[in-house]
Design a protein that fits this description.
alpha+beta; Enolase-like, domain 1; 3 domains; 4-stranded antiparallel sheet; binds flavin-adenine dinucleotide
Length: about 290
């Protein structure tokens, strides 16, 4: 399908990009990898008068690992995360989730900032941001601000980002080496969006789970954590009975989408199975102590 007509700009500074977005008052859209935006334009779901290409903006393609956690610049691509030598150890949950994103061609262009701004409830990275209580750094005409992921994602494909603001980076909190974690998803084929997925982690002290985080992607029309399932896990010794109980709580708590070809009941059953599988993997995986 042919794209609608639009003007095109390739600014070389963040300030210039923001000025262009601001001058067009909601009629301009940033473009990064184009892997979500171009199909949207092709299907005429958006018709911006100007595309502001972010590719020349400096300083947005850094990956940094420090005591403060992992920071991913907005222009970091899926394949950059995959190729990074330390990320697998520094944030295994992130690495496992990103390994499930799309196909090689998409992974070669799609970016962190594009995925967060697109806010697809089935997308892996927004799910990781929610599960890990990540912060999103944003800059715009009024200056810079950071938002918690839980406040940033408002609804499917909708965020708290103003039309003249840019995502600058994603900041994931520190990841203790001994943490127990799992990422599990079910898709019709490798690289397709998940019908349901879960990201979970917990810390363990004296054999008891605490600080449990369980996030869901794909199953619901919104990204969310399963607070009752987390509560059911906290303070418990993780054994087969507890795993079955928490998986059941997750299935009750999730708010699944009901579609003609994938029913809500099926998605609920998927969430139960994925949480069960995830907790089994997390509780038995060898870990750094
Ligand atoms: C066949 C196919 C399969 C896919 N499968 C998956 C999958 O399994 N999992 C998954 O998560 N994703 C999947 N995707 C989406 C893919 O990961 C996209 O790359 C990603 O969602 C958007 O990144 P992008 O850089 O291409 O953004 P773009 O398409 O360039 O932009 C997407 C949106 O973000 C905005 N934007 C981009 N950068 C910024 C910024 N820095 N600040 C503010 N706004 C910005 C744009 O204006 C636009 O609204 C798939 C895509 C395709 C085509």
């Amino acid at each position: 399908m042919k794209l609608p007509q639009f003007e095109y700009a390739m600014p070389s500074t963040i300030e210039e990009a923001i000025a262009l977005l601001a001058a067009h008052r909601g009629e301009a859209r940033p473009i990064a990898g184009g892997q979500s935006l171009i199909p949207i334009l092709a299907f005429r779901l958006a018709g911006p008068s100007l595309l502001v290409d972010l590719r020349k903006l400096p300083g947005l393609d850094r990956i940094s690992i420090s005591r403060e956690g992992v920071t991913l610049g907005a222009k970091v691509r899926w394949c950059d995360i995959e190729a990074h030598r330390q990320l697998g150890a520094a944030h295994p949950l992130l690495a496992a989730a990103v390994a499930c994103v799309a196909h090689y061609q998409v992974r070669n262009r799609g970016t962190v900032g594009g995925s967060l701004a697109h806010a697809d409830p089935a997308a892996e990275l927004p799910g990781i941001a929610m599960t890990c209580d990540a912060e999103i750094a944003i800059t715009g005409p009024a200056g810079s601000r950071t938002m918690k992921a839980v406040d940033f994602f408002l609804a499917p494909l909708m965020t708290a980002l103003a039309p003249d603001e840019l995502i600058v980076e994603l900041r994931l909190p520190p990841w203790p080496g001994a943490r127990r974690w799992a990422f599990e998803e079910f898709a019709r084929q490798r690289g397709a969006f998940a019908l349901a997925g879960i990201a979970l982690f917990y810390d363990e002290q004296n054999g008891v789970a605490n600080n449990a985080h369980i996030g869901v992607i794909g199953a619901s029309s919104r990204l969310h954590r399963l607070a009752a399932a987390e509560a059911a896990l906290n303070g418990r010794t993780v054994n087969d009975d507890v795993i079955v109980e928490v998986a059941g709580e997750s299935a009750r708590e999730v708010d699944p989408v009901d579609e003609l070809d994938v029913s809500a009941d099926y998605r609920r059953a998927l969430v139960r199975a994925l949480v069960q599988r995830g907790l089994q993997a997390a509780s038995t995986r060898a870990r750094d102590t």
